[in-house]
Amino acid sequence: MTAAERQTRFRVEGMDCASCAAKIDKAVRRIPDVADVSVSVVAGTMTVKHGDTVDLEALARKVGSLGYKAAPIAPTTAKGASIVEAEHSDHGSGCSHDHGAHDPKHDHDHDHGKNAQLGADETAPEKKPDALEGMHGHDHGPQDGPWWNTSKARLTIVCFVALAVAFGIGQLYPQTQPWGFIVAMAVGLIPIARRALSGAMNGSPFSIETLMTVAAVGAVIIDAAEEAAVVVVLFLIGELLEGIATGRARASIRALATLMPRTALLERDGTTETVPADSLTVDSVVLVRPGDRVPADGIVESGESAVDEAPVTGESVPKRKEVGDKVFAGTVNQEGVLRVRVTAAAADNTISRIIALVEEAQESKAPTERFIDRFSKYYTPGVMVVAALIAVLPPLLGGADWNTWIYRGLAVLLIGCPCALVISTPAAIAAALSAGARRGLLMKGGAVLENLGKVNRVAFDKTGTLTEGKPKVTDIVGVARDEKEVLRLAAALEGGSSHPLAVAILARAAADNVPVGSATDAGAVGGKGVVGKVDGLELFLASPRAAAEKVTLDDTLSARIAALNDEGKTVSVLLASDEVIGLIAMRDEPREDAKEGIAALAKLGADTVMLTGDNARTAKAIAASLGMEARAELMPQDKQRIVGEMRASGKFVAKVGDGINDAPALAAADIGIAMGSGTDVALETADAAVLHGRVKDVANMVALSRATMRNITQNITISLGLKAVFLVTTVLGVTGLWPAILADTGATVLVTANAMRLLAWRGIREA
């Protein structure tokens, strides 16, 4: 077995930024027989591809020597196997970074975050990583429980109290100054300086902690101990406020996991027993009582009820569920008892898949975020050089006062902290991905989210995308009998059939409360229709061509059939003996929100086109009713070619389909969007997925992307704008250390709070 054929995944604690990941990556790659290393800051994990000779304990110790803590979270596995996180709950401590205390009572009890490919026999308890953990250079460890109970909050409070005591003692005993303020500053600065030293020793000398340490120590040297202490307290408060704000984004994803009930009523051998919900296997049958949450994705075996799907889909009106209907894990049964056959294990249900995909998506950086990461590598050392020049050149060249210009140089150092700039993009991306997931909009990463806003041409599949994917009775025409009688006789003839047209007729009869009898001597006539006896009448429900072979269809009737066909409808003729008693027309109707969704895209400046393999007459009829262009009778390769032609003409194209027969076109588009219930094929093929089948949600994706890009622009403007203003005022001597740190902390909090606004995004407003 080669080095690349085995891999182990580690949980890495204390990793807070891209430079942390770079240090770990560089160190681990030097270990013999290690083929590749992939470090994820957001997930707090490291995946190592290696050979059999690697000592995993030694590898973990190497990471530990850098100031982090690493522990394997899954056994090694052969290449191609699914690497699944199964973290032990006992993380331990000892990391040099200042992380919040771990509280086991907040661990999730459900196996909700596993890879969708995980088999039911591989489940293990786990605690998912915080989706926003380590977004930049600050110390953002796990923050379970109330904010005031974290180590970060305790440090901030102790430092603030020490500052207040130093101020009080200084008023009573002036001779104690500046030592009281130096002690107060040291309380908060020592943990910051420790992290700065660790970073510098391991190749990251230009961290936020380094800037803060230099500025605070420099302030003490020039006899500004009081300001140094205040600067440290304000820095800690800024970190704390930012942690609280970003915690809201974590909570939005964790809230999805809490939708899952812990137990389920499993039917077994004619009795029911309470079992853990995450132990349910495919084809298990569970009983869901009124008021219970559905414990797994499944299909209703028996019963009828209204199910509140708002927690998963955002729909405010409960949906009626009958035998054969799908139900989603986490939704709430409201009325009757339902027997549900499980179709997906816990690791594969709708909620688990949403959580896993959102967490994976947050690993994929947007182009803007990658640019800012590269920019900050040069920006931070550049600021330190500028600050040093401001502190040194005026006294050296112009004979200015050293203390004054060193003070101004230190203030510039604080102003230059890249904190707000670095967090501006990932905070907005994470919040937007979370907000989208709450509405069933899944996007595979920041790049997809950012690019969706550029879409100006959307190509839709027809069947199952723009339409429901099943025919409905649209017209009943009475000829020798009235409409109700035509429907009654046709439904009796089709009773018990599972043919889509038969199902449509029976559904219409049920909706119109038409009593359905039974037919005798019923049977199918190959390629022509069905026959049978109802109330003594010899009935034949046939295609117009088959009916014309038995009776003469007059001009009026033929014209009516042609008109219905022109509307893309399939027409059946009901004969009683040799008499036409009525017509029934059916069509795969557009989804309820299809017209609204197409109109919403038009408002956003995106043209739409239907690409379908269906016949031209049906396609044009459906497209005309929706106000869009249609191209019909296409093979998969034709759809792919057309998408390529649209891109070549300068359009930024999104292709929306079911992710299976549209795979070539989905891959050819700038953005591929899978429509439907989130099948594995759809989610793997496409860049994004609309889990709940709403056409309007395609427009919502574009709108969310544009809202996110506006938010990122605002964040960058806030962070750089404040720095520019205070840089000028500091060099001119108008502002000093206090306003400088307030500007940095204030910009960070403003940027984070602005990004968190995206969590409240609810989609395009109703007209």
UniProtKB/TrEMBL annotation:
What SUPFAM superfamilies is this protein classified in? Calcium ATPase, transduction domain A (SSF81653), Calcium ATPase, transmembrane domain M (SSF81665), HAD-like (SSF56784), HMA, heavy metal-associated domain (SSF55008)
Biased amino acid composition, Basic and acidic residues: 85-114, 124-142
Q: Which residues form the HMA domain?
A: 6-71
Give the location in the cell.
Answer: Cell membrane
Which CDD domains does the annotation name?
Answer: HMA
Q: Which UniProt keywords apply?
A: ATP-binding, Cell membrane, Membrane, Metal-binding, Nucleotide-binding, Phosphoprotein, Translocase, Transmembrane, Transmembrane helix
Q: What class of enzyme is it?
A: translocase
According to the record, the residues making up region (Disordered) are 81-147
UniProt cross-references to Pfam families, sorted A to Z:
E1-E2_ATPase, HMA, Hydrolase
Q: What reaction is this protein's catalytic activity?
A: Zn(2+)(in) + ATP + H2O = Zn(2+)(out) + ADP + phosphate + H(+)
Which E.C. number(s) belong to this protein? Answer: 7.2.2.12
As for membrane topology, the entry says:
Multi-pass membrane protein
What's the chief localization of this chain? Answer: membrane
User: Where do the TM regions start and end?
Assistant: 155-173, 179-197, 378-397, 409-433, 716-734
- Family annotation (NCBIfam families): ATPase-IB1_Cu, ATPase-IB2_Cd, ATPase-IB_hvy, ATPase_P-type
| Similarity section | Belongs to the cation transport ATPase (P-type) (TC 3.A.3) family. Type IB subfamily.
Q: Which PANTHER family match?
A: CADMIUM/ZINC-TRANSPORTING ATPASE HMA2-RELATED, CADMIUM_ZINC-TRANSPORTING ATPASE HMA4-RELATED
Protein name, UniProt field: P-type Zn(2+) transporter
Native source organism of the sequence: Aquibium pacificus
State the taxonomy lineage.
Bacteria, Pseudomonadati, Pseudomonadota, Alphaproteobacteria, Hyphomicrobiales
